[in-house]
From TrEMBL:
Catalytic activity: 9-(9Z-octadecenoyloxy)-octadecanoate + H2O = 9-hydroxy-octadecanoate + (9Z)-octadecenoate + H(+); 12-octadecanoyloxy-octadecanoate + H2O = 12-hydroxyoctadecanoate + octadecanoate + H(+); 12-(9Z-octadecenoyloxy)-octadecanoate + H2O = 12-hydroxyoctadecanoate + (9Z)-octadecenoate + H(+); 9-hexadecanoyloxy-octadecanoate + H2O = 9-hydroxy-octadecanoate + hexadecanoate + H(+)
InterPro entries linked: ADTRP_AIG1
Keyword Signal part of the UniProt annotation: yes
GO cellular component, one term: membrane
Protein name per Swiss-Prot or TrEMBL: Androgen-dependent TFPI-regulating protein
Compartments where located: Endomembrane system
Transmembrane segments: 50-73, 93-113, 133-152, 164-182, 188-218
Amino acid sequence: MAATGQKMCLLLHLLIFSWYIFTIWSNCSLQTSDKHPGVRSYGGRWKYLTFINLVLQAVFFGWCVFVDAVHMLVPVKHTRSGTPLTLTKARDFYFTALAFPVGTFVFASFWSLYTYDRELVYPKMLDEIIPVWLNHAMHTVIMPLLLLQMFLQSHTYPSRTRGISALALFSALYLSWVLWVHHASGIWVYPIMAHLSPVGLCVFLGGASLSMAPLYLLGEKLSLMMWSTTGNHQKKKKK
């Protein structure tokens, strides 16, 4: 990668990382309301996948800043892409197995439910607590930023077994956390869960978890489409 391109990546990653830090700070600075205790209830902000995703994205882009800086400043053994091998592998695995599919899920699931009936996921009373720009920062902007990252740098996908297994583990841990929050406090993280029968709840949670795998494959397909003609995209393992 040319020096100008390296500096551009570092600058963009620094800007995106700063944006996520600002968004998290803004989220944590919100005034709570008695109408919607939300973050004051059991589990705080950490029971919401939206907040967890913000932290995931901030950590990822912070790691990108670190990798870019190491590449520019430290003369170490380089890979074909120009970045130290172990750092590149960690960056690529994090992006492909977590950052892209989880971020895409938050974007797609939130706006799908919001369009169908916003009360099921984002009650209207939240408009009095969360500014419109912050809602879009948490649920909309994540998607174009992920696509920008995919365009900026080629990411070598791990084997599908490793990648989807890591994503499945994340999904299982979050699902267990949601169920534990309900068991410990009697509250459901999202309003839609309170409207479902036990069978409906199983179908909903199971469907949400299973939808992660297609999103992983979507990222793999988009990455291949973007980079297959450049000669920079390494062949991915399929097993």
